[in-house]
Amino acid sequence: MRWLPIVLALPLLVAASGREHPQREPRRFRLELAIDHAQGGTYISAWTPGDVISDHDGSSGLPVTYHRLFHWLDDCEWESIEVIVPESADRYLYTYREHAVSCPDGTSPDGDVTRTGIVTVHPASGDRPITPLVARVQLRTL
Fold this sequence. Notes:
The protein has 142 residues and is mostly beta strands. Helices cover 11% and strands 41% of the residues.
């Protein structure tokens, strides 16, 4: 007799599992950067072509890091690192730093630059792709 409720409920469970659940549109966010302190120099940034597009806001409380790798005019390989740390779901603290990864023998790297700022989170519209966390940047020479 104990099995009777389970046997009666089984067809309902099977029918419910076969139902199609509507697909939720993935959430997208536009991350707008406002610089509050910067050294003079050139910044190789995830924000260089415009605002960053992300699939999450700051509600997780976890920091996000963007890496850009590039070959600079000093003939050295460089890495820029941008870290955003959430203060709230719609606001991050931003830091940029860069360093030379390697240089040919007999050369020394140019000086590095830093900057700080605030990133504001907005709902994203349009079909711009998600900004990659890691990218190799090809610099154009004049």
